[in-house]
Design goal:
The protein is mostly beta strands. The protein is built from one helix and 13 strands.
Length: 196
C-alpha cells in the first residue's frame, strides 16, 4: 500500500540554502504527519523525493513527493475493557496471558504413626494438590472431612503401603472454615484443614 502526497511551494528571492532548509522541514513534516495518522504493525519505509525546478531568476518552485510504504497491513484485534465495557482497539500482535493459578500444593509425611503437619491452610475453592509420603511400613492415607465426626467426606485419599508416595488432587470447599483430616486406618493421626 502506498500513500502519495504532493506539495508545491513557490519561493521568491531566497537563497539556495534557505530553500534546502525549507525543503527539509517540509519533508520532515509530511513524514511525521503520515506516521501519526497511519496505524502499522510492521516496519515503515519512506522515500522522499524532492525536485527543485527553476522557473525564473527570482522564483523557484519546489515539488515534494513522499511515498509511504507499509510492509504488511495493520493487524487490529478488538478487546473489551473489563471495568467500563467499552471496546478498545489494539494494533499489533495480541499476547495471551496465562490464567491465574488457583492450585495450592501441600506436603504431608507419615512417620512413626504421626503426620508431620497437623494444620493445613488453603484458599476457598482452590485446587488442592497433596503430595503424601508414607515413611512407615504400615499403610496410611489422608482423608478430608467436614467435621471430626465424619458427617460428610470432602476427599478420601487412597491407602498406600510404605515406604511410598502418592499425590491427591481435589477441590477445597468454597465456604471458608475449619475442617478435618485424618488417616482412616489410624484415626489418632489427624489435623485441621483450614479453608480461608
Amino acid at each position: 500500500m502506498a500513500i502519495h502526497m504532493y506539495q508545491e511551494i513557490t519561493v521568491s528571492c531566497m537563497e539556495t540554502r534557505t530553500v534546502m532548509i525549507l525543503l527539509l522541514c517540509l519533508v520532515s513534516a509530511v513524514v511525521l504527519v503520515s506516521g501519526c495518522t497511519t496505524q502499522t504493525s510492521g516496519p515503515v519505509t519512506t522515500q522522499p523525493a524532492a525536485t527543485v525546478i527553476p522557473q525564473s531568476s527570482s522564483t523557484v518552485a519546489v515539488k515534494v513527493r513522499t511515498t509511504l510504504t507499509l510492509s504488511q497491513p495493520p493487524v487490529t484485534e478488538s478487546l473489551t475493557a473489563q471495568k467500563t465495557g467499552t471496546p478498545t482497539t489494539v494494533a499489533g500482535d495480541l499476547t495471551v496471558l496465562p490464567a491465574l493459578d488457583t492450585s495450592e500444593k501441600v506436603r504431608i509425611k507419615a512417620r512413626n504413626f504421626a503426620f508431620d503437619n497437623s494444620r493445613i491452610t488453603v484458599p476457598a475453592g482452590a485446587q488442592v494438590i497433596v503430595e503424601f509420603e508414607n515413611e512407615d511400613s504400615a499403610p496410611h492415607n489422608v482423608a478430608f472431612y467436614t467435621t471430626p465426626s465424619l458427617t460428610a467426606t470432602i476427599y478420601k485419599g487412597k491407602l498406600i503401603d510404605g515406604p511410598g508416595k502418592i499425590t491427591y488432587v481435589f477441590s477445597a470447599p468454597s465456604t471458608p472454615g475449619t475442617y478435618f483430616f485424618r488417616c482412616d486406618l489410624h484415626p489418632y493421626m489427624k489435623g485441621e484443614f483450614v479453608v480461608t
